[in-house]
Design goal:
30% of the residues lie in helices and 24% in strands. It folds into two domains: 167 residues, Rossmann fold (3-Layer(aba) Sandwich); 118 residues, 3-Layer(aba) Sandwich (Rossmann fold), CATH 3.40.50.1220. By secondary structure, it is an alpha/beta fold. Helix 6 links the parallel strand 10 and strand 11. The strands form two sheets. It has a nine-stranded mixed beta sheet with strand order 7-6-5-8-4-1-2-3-9, with helices on both faces. Strands 11-10-12-13-14 form a five-stranded parallel beta sheet. The protein is elongated. The protein binds flavin-adenine dinucleotide. The site of flavin-adenine dinucleotide (FAD) has 27 residues, from helix 7, helix 8 and helix 10.
Length: 330
């Protein structure tokens, strides 16, 4: 007979063995996205055998790099021109084929534009509810996510037999991708071509600045900047801080900056060490995307602006005077 505590331990170990997780890697064939490393950490928290799916055109380098992560049993690789542009329609068919062969209990992807396009389709095809944008894992069936634009935290117990999950990158540490040597195998082969969509081309913004979602420092501007040209003030400040530049939705909607800079509920979720909000009022939809930043600095001429309620340092000032002064002093 086992002592009760030992028996409990044995059960949870056995349970972890029964779980098998498929992580969908986001990459550009060469390099994994940082969000994939965060997603891998979340998968490890769920516990169980972890496989990673890397699908692309010539994705050898990305597969190699994830195979080095500790605690992965295999990397399934699918290389074909069909996966050009990483379209959700083709990747969904591949994921379903992998699911049919391996019977995963969890399918997990980053809650980025990539994962958000694919996993709801996969969930619909498997007739289960997607569990989106989790920020915590209690156990293999219980996950934490925010609701009401980040104003309430929900603990969700999933009863579906297959859990299809997207992971908020900022809520989990990046897996260091070292200490392991997982087997690299071919993913199930099949005809994944679809008439639903055709990849034509892609134009990516080229920038020497850090990417918004992984930057340690961010300077973000809002409608208070008044024009796109005035964002130069923020770029100058960002250069001094090696920071990424972001924006509120109002600034994006007004055409000051492109929409890949948008931070918030319907934009990117960020959690840098330093977030400087300039001419941003602090609407809840904006806060939903940045309130987990470690130090928040707000510059706003209105002392009643809600951004001051979440900021660690607040400067009530005209941004057109304060920002150049700050940049010059750095
Ligand atoms: C469904 C939904 C989703 C949304 N998603 C998002 C989202 O993802 N991200 C997002 O940001 N918003 C989002 N919004 C919009 C959000 O509600 C706000 O409208 C938006 O965030 C406001 O942007 P802002 O703070 O730049 O503009 P405003 O609210 O107009 O604030 C401008 C601020 O600049 C200050 N200011 C003006 N001039 C100066 C100056 N010279 N010096 C200093 N300060 C100055 C003003 O005092 C004011 O506080 C969403 C809304 C909805 C309904």
């Amino acid at each position: 007979m086992f002592a009760p505590s030992t028996r409990k331990l044995l059960c949870s170990t056995q349970l972890r063995r029964l779980q098998s997780i498929l992580v969908i890697a986001e990459h550009n064939n060469e390099v994994l996205s940082p969000a994939t490393q965060n997603t891998l950490s979340a998968a490890k928290k769920i516990g169980g055998e972890i496989s990673v799916l890397v699908a692309g055109t010539k994705c050898g380098p990305a597969s190699e790099s994830i195979s080095k992560a500790n605690g992965i049993s295999k990397v399934l690789v699918a290389e074909s021109d069909v996966f050009k542009g990483f379209t959700a329609e083709t990747l969904t068919a591949l994921i379903l084929a992998a699911q049919k062969q391996f019977n995963f209990t969890h399918i997990v992807a980053p809650a980025t534009a990539f994962g958000k396009a694919i996993l709801p389709r996969v969930a619909a095809k498997l007739d289960v509810s997607p569990i989106t944008d989790i920020i915590g894992v209690n156990d293999a069936n219980t996950f934490i996510r925010t609701i009401y634009a980040g104003n309430a935290v929900l603990t969700l117990e999933a009863t579906d037999p297959i859990k299809v999950i997207t992971v908020r990158g900022t809520a989990f540490p990046a897996d260091p991708l070292e200490g392991g040597s997982a087997a690299i195998e071919k993913a199930p082969e099949g005809d994944y071509k679809t008439d639903l969509v055709e990849f034509v081309s892609q134009e990516l913004t080229k920038s020497d600045r850090p990417a918004l979602t992984s930057a340690k420092n961010i300077v973000a501007g809002g409608r208070g900047l008044k024009s796109g040209d005035n964002f130069k003030l923020l770029y100058d400040l960002a250069d001094k801080l090696n920071a990424a530049v972001g924006a509120s939705r109002a600034a994006v909607d007004a055409g000051f900056v492109p929409n890949d800079l948008q931070i918030g509920q319907t934009g990117k979720i960020v959690a840098p060490n330093l977030y400087i909000a300039v001419g941003i009022s602090g609407a809840i939809q904006h806060l939903a995307g940045m309130k987990d930043s470690k130090t928040i600095v707000a510059i706003n001429k209105d002392p009643e602006a809600p951004i001051f309620q979440v900021s660690d340092i607040g400067l009530v000032a005209d941004l057109f005077k304060a920002v150049p002064e700050l940049t010059n002093k750095l």
